[in-house]
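dude i think i finally got it to work??
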Amino acid sequence: MTTLTEDTPRWWPDTVAVLAGASLLVVTALWVGHGGLQDLTGGGALSATGRLLGLWASDLLLIQVLLMARIPLAERAFGQDRLARWHRWTGFTSFWLMVAHIVLITLGYAATAGTDPFRQLRDMIVNFPGLLLAAAGTLALVMVVVTSIRAARRRLRYESWHLLHLYAYLGAFLALPHQLWSGSDFVGSPVATAYWWGLWGLAVAAVLAYRVVVPLLRNRRHRIVVDRVVPEANGVTSVYFNGNDLRKLPVRAGQFFHWRFLDGPGWTRSNPFSLSAAPAEQIRITVKDSGDGSSRVATLKRGTRVLVEGPYGKLTGERYTGGPVVLMACGIGITPLLSLLGELPYAPGEATLLYRVRDDASTAFRQELDWYAVERGVRVVYLTGPRGRSWLPGDRTDELTGLAPDIAAASVYICGPEEWAVQARTAARAAGVPAARVHTELFTW
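look at this
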């Protein structure tokens, strides 16, 4: 899932970019201090350039790990979606720098030895300390990069993609022995040693702390279990959970967890599901059957233990202080918006929900939405029909201002598939809603 929000101060992303750029400058300075410029102009240009690109690749690889280490400050500031986008861009850049590093180093050594580049590469892998492990790590990263291309992701189930993506950690750590044993730029001076060990230590500590220790402690405290499973619509199922003191679970309406259900094989694979009701003594998720991980939800038994990682997402009412609010949902995107309906402090008549569904059989929570309409004065508009080119059903041409007359003064929350949500966001901006009041969560990965 992806979150686009303007709550974060505008200068924060620039600060992150400056810090990342500063780390590359530090790496470059260490390369210069270890004779990089002399080598560059002294006949070893290929090898010297290859060394520099390898240093940049390693630096960005560790930054990539930090971006998805689930550091709470970063998650709250940017949301997992923006961090995932940066993670993807950084990963592709690091990968191609690594490829260039391998090519240039091989060509440089081959030119010096007067041998064939392919034979030189083979000899380096076999004879250089740590390079056999680095080659295995490179293959793991190649697999991760190939499956991260958009066309490949569309052909994979989320569970398969997520499992393959974990090999990025393996690729990163298999490269470490090569860097320490063969990479003189990593250990050529006390400053270089301190920098690289510090960055490696920070990455490892962040992953262990926030991807392992914090989730384990949180699950041990709350001991979440399945209470009941309720069908909502065609292929849509809600699950209610009990646990110890769930009111103290640090989650807000609109956020999501990564869920693991301890009901048999496959429990190690997690799936991101949003809360579909404001958190209380019980919590609820609602899932559409779209793959192995989601289809098993309908078969969960009462008492099944659950492990959660999170919460994540910035589609919350943290900055909402009252006034008109418009919620725009498509399909299963209704789930976080329904939880927001239960938490936001809007007055009767101030909230409008535009709910885009394919047909009546796909409409979930109709009775619950009827209750919100009667008890809290929510105006619910069902947009029913086949998907067309517009975010509206079919060939409808209704203006957004006709569906939600006060939208220009409203806080707008949008959730649904990526293409639809982008179109809905564009429509909201065209209707006069400032970017700072448009909050969008996309169902993508």
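The chain has three domains: 2-217, 223-312, 325-443.
im so relieved honestly
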